[in-house]
Amino acid sequence: MLKIQEYRPESFIDFTQADNVAAYQAALKKVRAELVGKHYPLIIDGVRVDTAEKLESINPCDTSEIVGSTAKATVDDAQKALDGAWKAFESWKKWTPDARARILLKASALLKARRLEACALMSIEVGKNYAEADVEVAEAIDFLEYYARTAMKYSGFGAADTTWYEGEENGLMFMPIGVGVSISPWNFPCAIYLGMLAAPIVAGNCVIAKPAEDSGLIAGFVTDIMLEAGLPAGVLQFLPGVGEEVGEYLTTHAKTRFITFTGSRGVGLHINEVAAKVQPTQKWIKKVILELGGKDGMIVDETADIETAVTAAVQGAFGFNGQKCSAMSRLIVVDSVYEEVVGQFVERAGKLRVGTGEDNANVTAVVNEESFEKIGKYIGIGKGEAKLLLGGETPGEHGGKRGYYVQPTIFGDVPADARIAQEEIFGPVISVIRARDWDHALDIANTTEYGLTGGVCSRDRARLEQARHEFEAGNLYFNRKITGAIVGVQPFGGYNMSGTDSKAGGPDYLANFMQLKTVTERW
Ligand code: NAD
């Protein structure tokens, strides 16, 4: 067993302190000097392999800048990665859980030492401001620390309880399942990417990690850290590439044992379908873990503390420009306090500073052209469905630089069944919905097909207890923002079309990547 202190989440850096801001700016300089312009090849069986084509990362806040590039894997590369990973599995599965966990702890120490570099890289590659980037790297460190510790509980024969039976020894063993593919999104390109590969690996599996096309550099950065920490060759294969090509190849492949996917509802459901089809020579039913989108609502009732509710709404709606699966995109306000709450919400949102991640703006550019176009289209739809209260423009430039800039946008009196109130926009566009009373508000909250996060701002104890049971959300928050789940503290995962509720950062997350064997010996 590991001899380490009990898990405690990382604390966040306080950017109201001038010396912390100065340290961040120094990290930005260092990253610009050392990492911007870098190219990350594939890593297959521990060997760096380049490809004829590459994927470029564009700075969303200044689209004239190419931040760097990764190789672009082909299906041949994917096949080699799969074959190599199965070879590596033969020895990796025999490592003890504590030996595997030590690699995560070493990686955590390395990432802690380079925390601000990882943050600064994300400010440039995906436009995170200082606090958003810092919270994410803290989460990545937490995943490593937390999964290293939870791996211990699956160790050895008898790790799970069975009932004693006369004349026999009976017990359960947790076993790794094999080689899987981990497919991640660009919006938490450090924490989700790392968490989704570290968990299966510490459980004894081998992983082919396919990062999102827009955020290959930060993925390459943390992959290097995992290898520097001592992962044997082939346990982690780094395979940046196009989802529809190598992603599709791997999710449909007979030799893929499990798929862990975080991304959009459309792609997730497609993977669910193709992975269910048994291929010739396939020996198992693939395990598929899907964490998908959200259309997350927060209710404010007439008993709420208005200041608390408005702060929660602004933070939950506009943190990282609303590009979080957990972002509050629907604010549901009870009629008697509607004008007051919405008035203050619009006023506070109107004061948010738009700019670059490097300048630590509150709202920065959205990630890429596709998102920019999609958000613009929804703003247009919203103008036909509801009353525009704030923003509504997509200037596409800031401070003389082209970038995917969208104004913080709020629509009021949005019908609960309007498209902007039902479909995931994934940008700084909020629908405010008026409810007659508490019961109506709770009904509205449960009208979407998603069920990821949700919130209630209320001082009525009975209502909070009712919401605790009836609000359909995997992560429910009372009297605070609905984003920012902390590893181990608020295990994360959604209901309904938001996913398989696997609860990343939860006590049983590693069991997703294991199978149980019961062994009986008669004396
Ligand atoms: P996306 O679905 O477009 O892409 C996610 C990943 O899937 C990428 O790596 C992409 O290359 C890959 N992919 C695309 N097509 C594929 C295919 N046919 N086969 C295999 N892989 C394929 O999502 P995105 O735009 O990167 O991320 C935003 C989405 O992710 C939003 O919907 C957001 O809500 C969701 N998200 C959910 C959570 C959660 O925990 N529930 C967390 C973060 C983001």
What does this entry look like structurally?
This protein has helices spanning 18-34, 75-92, 97-113, 115-125, 130-150, 191-202, 216-228, 243-252, 265-276, 306-318, 335-350, 369-385, 419-422, 438-445, 461-470; strands spanning 39-40, 42-44, 47-49, 54-58, 66-71, 168-176, 179-183, 206-210, 236-238, 258-262, 287-291, 296-300, 328-334, 387-390, 397-398, 401-402, 409-412, 429-435, 450-451, 453-457, 475-478, 495-496, 514-522. With 523 residues, it is an alpha/beta fold. The protein has a seven-stranded mixed β-sheet with strand order 14-17-18-13-12-20-21, sandwiched between helices. A five-stranded parallel β-sheet has the order 9-8-7-10-11, sandwiched between helices. The longest helix has 21 residues, at 130-150. The protein starts with 17 loop residues before the first helix and ends with a strand. The site of nicotinamide-adenine-dinucleotide (NAD) has 32 residues, from α8 and α9.
